[in-house]
Amino acid sequence: MSQDSGRYSRQILFPGIGAAGQSAIRSATVGLVGLGALGSGIADLLVRAGVGRLRAVDRDYVDLSNLHRQGLYTESDARERLPKAVAAGRRLALLDPEVEVEARVADLRPENAEDLLGDCDLILDGTDGFETRYLINDLAVKRGLPWIYGACVAAQGMTANILPGDTPCLACLFPDPPPPGTGDTCDTAGIIGPAASLIASLQVTEALKILVGDRKALRRGLLSIELWPYRAVELGGRSARPRADCRVCGERHFDFLEGDRWSRTVTLCGRDSVQVLPRDPGQVDLGALAARLAGQGDIRHNDFLLVFASQEVEITVFRDGRAIVKGCTDGAEARRLYQRYVGA
């Protein structure tokens, strides 16, 4: 790799990276799950840092309510209802043409996790739900891949570096997902952009340490930061180690990766919506679906998705059969509406 003295010169001058570190960054493949508040900031920083390949996976589309905290998107993206992966891929390609950006419009699930992330050197968490995070954790522990957990809501956030066999994994830190309805979400507590930007910056800083091989400089504990009012706590510290009785890294039970604890519906943070998965995933003919729904409501579609709106519901259907049912937080009701308008 030729060291671009203009583009990376200040980063190379930093002793923690240098020319050798920049070469390591350029040769790396990084996986990113989610391109929302955290993920859009992570993607921007990784591409500007010159990572060799960024494979970013996101299941959602751009909404006007995203724009105050998700810096990759514009009002035009929201009006067109572009999938975040499509809009982000276009914007990231303009930042550094030497970076290979693979932006996938997809929902990370047990059946595709290995294909999407299995060959990555590092995985970063930009998701908005624990179910997907436990899936990432299962895959990372099984394959021995480092990954970086991140979460943000209101004015607070958390992040942890997870190095399988060396630091606690996600199941060590949180043995079970929180019960539904017990935690704050962007819908209930809101979120401010600086909190998401801070956690994303912390995640990418730790990612660069991993990519250049400086593991001694990594945080080992779970960092929790609240910005308003300010408070920072690190749990575990330098002595943090995996739990011997952990069901994942200790006993090596990968329930989420094997699909045993996976649901077909999930509530989307900050969207007041539920995502519904089809029983039999496959490509949907959006034109044919539009013709079938004609006369039942307003319809618009592009190359990536179809939006159907009636007095009863608004449903966004993706080409892989996934759908986002807006204005609904009940999984059973979302499935009923999906079956009525889209099919089984």
Structural class: alpha/beta
Task: Give the count of helical stretches.
Answer: 12
Across the major sheet, the strand order is 3-2-1-4-5-6-7-8
CATH superfamily descriptor of the largest domain: NAD(P)-binding Rossmann-like Domain
| Proportion of residues in helical segments | 25-40%
Q: Report low-confidence residues grouped into runs of 5 or more.
A: none
Radius of gyration: 20 Å
H and E order = HHEHEHHEHEHEEHHHEEEEHEEEEH
Q: In CATH terms, what is the fold-level topology of the largest domain?
A: Rossmann fold
**Main β-sheet description:** 8 strands, mixed
What is the class of the largest domain in the CATH system? Answer: Alpha Beta
When the domains are counted, the total is 2
Terminal CA distance reads 50 Å
CATH architecture of the largest domain: 3-Layer(aba) Sandwich
